User: Fold this.
Amino acid sequence: MRRVLRLTGTVLVAAILAVVVAEIALRVVDYGEDLFPAGPRWLFVADERLGVRLRPSFRGRHRAKEFDVRIETNALGLREREIGSPSPPAIRIVCTGDSFCYGHGVEAEEAYPRRLEESLRSRGLAVEVVNAGVPSYGTLEQALWLESDGERLAPAVVVASFFSGNDLKDNVRAPGERLTERFGYPVSREVARVVDASPGWRLSGRWRLVLYVRWNLLRRLERQQEAAARAATPAALPPPGEPHLYTGVPLMLSDSPPWLDPFWVKFEEDLARIGEACDRLGARLVLLYVPTAAETSERERAAALAAFDMTGLEIDSSRSRNRVAGIAERLGIDFVDPTPALSTEDPPQPNYYPEDRHWTPAGHARAAEVLAERVRALPR
Assistant:
């Protein structure tokens, strides 16, 4: 009996030491606050209508392999300065969109909304540009945000955005895939339901080891939920083995896959809803196209095709943006495409982070200049 107790005690002590060592190691590498790729922990709060919002008056940093930037929000939950009423004769421009608009991986002053403001002011225009971007927002969320929050900002111009890498997919989220927040991270509502039903998830997040296990389980649940959604609606998702929309490859195929058709229909419906919201606000709508890196570089396209063993397929890198431009034209919306400005094969400063795939400060600056030329030409 004593031998069994000693053995049990030894195993217990070894397990405790292993946990302590793991906790120390995770603290040494500062693991725990920057697990979610879209931003630091606690940046997001749940919103019944929008899924998630940015937390008002948040202060933190977003650290990743390729950048380390300040993240601060104002009292409205925007990555912006505090906002009052527009001062005549200033024209207020509101930019909506996802992580590109928000400025993922760059300082707030380097994101294209602020760069747009600087560019227009340098041309003598009295403007104020508001960054209303939120990581994970698609076209529908932009419309919903304008419907609920647009009036308080009283914009004269709204610059919505469309990222060809994931906005099409985000727009067709099933109810269970819509986002909410748990433990400071955006997760799907189906994952949140599983989490809420499991008492073990309530363990203290002060332990980095708990965060490590929790985060990896969240990611596993997300993958399982996406697989279930694929099985339930196979026509609305790319078949297994085909390139994910995030790569941009399906949108560039000369023969458009039929499973893409519902995505485009939904996008046009949501974009029309943005237009209707702008009409009610009395605001002019401009749509900024945000291309994937593969749309701007032959090298990136070749790498994306090779990754899926599709090097023999015929590619038209302008196909996606031409289709978006056609939809915008049908809806009477001004369309801005910065792809040519971002398409230098070896620019002095790269436009995209090599691994993260968002715009660098240089990419934001180039896109802002193209956008400024179009906004400056709008009738006033």
Q: What stands out?
A: The mean pLDDT is 81.
